[in-house]
Amino acid sequence: MKIDKEFIHPSHPNHKLKLEYTETPFCCDGCREAGIGLKYRCDICDFDLHKVCAMAPNSIAHSFYKKCEFRFYYKPPGAYKRVCDACRKDVQGFIYHCTRCGFDLHPCCANLPLRLDDSEQHNFYLCEKLSSACHRCGNKGLGWSYRSECKNYYLHVTCVKEMLVESWQTIYLNQNKNGKHIREVQMGMLAPSLKGTLQNHHKGRVGKVRRCCQMATSALRIIISAILGDPTAIIAAVIGVLLSK
């Protein structure tokens, strides 16, 4: 599919948006969700869109919802609050909605790959429901998740998003206190948060915790890159370096 380097988007008609690549997290002004990697930006208005949101087709289908036809909306339809059925987060902007069944998907969630390849460790598969507890929250719960090929490692999409929010809150607090540049601490709090969960899960078995942390960090590296709207090897490598700090 051809990717335009610049164009005018209906949600921002006054200026052209230009395609950019960034390793710094941003908030998409379309879906109001986090992003990294390729985006369309207006420097004049400080306006950003995920590439996925900018190029969103009018309708899509998804293999998890075979009877649904999802239509694209610039804002949530109806008078009531809507929740994304993939990540269980509130819908605050761009959304895919099935009028017939009532399901909702953020554009980036709708585009999450069904399979993520990690040549160093394992492949991860997107699941509509968990068959085992998430390594972050310890629960099965609602919402999509990724599981490893060996079926030993599970992470909710919503849990990974919560880890990002916690990390960014720490980042901006540090910025306000001592002026550190965002890339120096970009996602460094993600791994410790998951490590604590794994330590509790394995009850002090140090070797098991170490192996699980290595696997979990590998999982986070590729899952985060997909959730942030750019599931590419380049972005995954960047996040992998940040997680290892």
Automatic annotation (TrEMBL):
Q: Which residues form the signal peptide?
A: none
Identify the residues that the record assigns to the Phorbol-ester/DAG-type domain, covering every copy. Answer: 14-68
Cite the entry's keywords alphabetically.
Answer: Membrane, Metal-binding, Repeat, Transmembrane, Transmembrane helix, Zinc
Q: Does the keyword Ligase apply?
A: no
The UniProt entry, under SUPFAM superfamilies, shows: Cysteine-rich domain
Which molecular function GO terms apply here? metal ion binding
Q: Which InterPro entries match?
A: C1-like_sf, DC1, PKC_DAG/PE
Regions that span the bilayer = 219-243
Coiled-coil-forming residues are none
PANTHER family for the chain: CYSTEINE/HISTIDINE-RICH C1 DOMAIN FAMILY PROTEIN (PTHR46477), PHORBOL-ESTER_DAG-TYPE DOMAIN-CONTAINING PROTEIN (PTHR46477:SF17)
Protein name, entry field: Cysteine/Histidine-rich C1 domain family protein
Which organism is this entry from? Rhynchospora pubera
